[in-house]
Amino acid sequence: MDFANRPDPGRRIIGIGAVVLFHVLLVWGLVNGLARKAIELLPAPIETKILDEVKNEELPPPPPPPPQLDIPPPPFVPPPEINIASAPPPVNTITTTTVAPPPSAPVAAPRAPSVSKAPVVKAKACKEPDYPAVSERLGETGSVTLQLLVGVDGKVTDSKVEKSSGFDRLDKAAQQALSRCKFEPGIVDGAPAPAWAQLKYTFRKQD
């Protein structure tokens, strides 16, 4: 065996240390340089957000406000002045007349004439009609002549206006009041019988 060609152990140790140093430097470079560049080369994370869809709904424009109309106030009309002169209470008069009953129908055989009596119409037995307030205020006056049918009991069973006073209110007032009177009935052949009597009533104002 040739011990002259045996390798030097010192050189061997130096070579191994160089290899180890190379690997250490390589690892350090990878850790500090290449790893950082690799991280920088990676793309940044993308952030995503879900946005609610905004609906653009076209709302109709609001209606225009109603026009303001200036309504003028109604014209002032002063109430008419009515001067009503108060009149003194009227003085009424009642004029009575009697109407004879119609003659009895003729008979074939002659007989003595019947004795008849017309109704007795006394004004004092009646309550005077009330003067209508409207007629008094308007100055209405006049005389009304009535025909009254007096029954067997003296009460008026029918009435009618024979001659008007010219005012319907006065005629009705006299007819309604005098129809409630009670008179003496007419007499025919000694027994009470219905008969017509005439009565005149005058509405007048006191002077």
Describe this structure in words.
This protein has 207 residues and is an alpha+beta fold. The protein has helices spanning 9-41, 133-138, 168-178, and strands spanning 93-98, 116-117, 142-150, 156-163, 186-188, 191-193, 195-203. The chain has 3 helices and 7 strands, in the order H-E-E-H-E-E-H-E-E-E. The protein is rod-shaped and about 210 Å long. The chain starts with 8 loop residues before the first helix and ends with a strand.
Helix-strand blueprint:
Elements: H1 9-41, E1 93-98, E2 116-117, H2 133-138, E3 142-150, E4 156-163, H3 168-178, E5 186-188, E6 191-193, E7 195-203
Antiparallel strand pairs: 1-7, 2-5, 3-4, 3-7, 5-6
Considering the chains and any ligands shown, give keywords for the structure.
four-stranded antiparallel sheet, 207 residues, alpha+beta, single chain, 19% strand, three-stranded antiparallel sheet
